[in-house]
């Protein structure tokens, strides 16, 4: 039971979410999950994909900010607050 709780907590990093997605895919591909657990894994996977997508979009926006902010030939670092 503690194992299930650990797996269902929200990821803190892109890497955590990606690792969990890999685990879910492996479980789903082996064909041994009952239908209700397969659906739960699918739902969790969709949430993880959304999390990863948002993290990648955030990183892309930060990179674009860094590239755009040049002052006297050097890069100026700005804090990123999101949109």
- Largest sheet features: 2 strands, antiparallel
Q: How much is the radius of gyration in Å?
A: 18 Å
Termini Cα gap: 38 Å
Q: Which of globular, elongated, flat, extended, rod-shaped describes the shape?
A: rod-shaped
Trace the largest sheet across and list its strands. 1-2
* Uncertain stretches: 1-6
**What percent of residues adopt helix (DSSP H or I)?**
55-70%
Secondary-structure class = mainly alpha
Topology readout:
Blueprint: H1 2-8, H2 14-29, H3 35-68, E1 70-71, E2 74-75
Antiparallel strand pairs: 1-2
Give an overview of the whole structure.
There is one protein chain. This protein has helices at 2-8, 14-29, 35-68, and strands at 70-71, 74-75. With 83 residues, it is mainly alpha-helical. The protein has a two-stranded antiparallel sheet. Helix 2 (14-29) packs antiparallel against helix 3. It is rod-shaped, with a radius of gyration of 18 Å. 5% of the residues are buried. Mean pLDDT is 82; it is low at 1-6.
Keywords:
83 residues, mainly alpha, two-stranded antiparallel sheet, 3 helices, 2 strands, 69% helix
Would you kindly provide a brief summary of this structure?
The chain has three helices and two strands, in the order H-H-H-E-E. Helix content is 69%, strand content 5%.
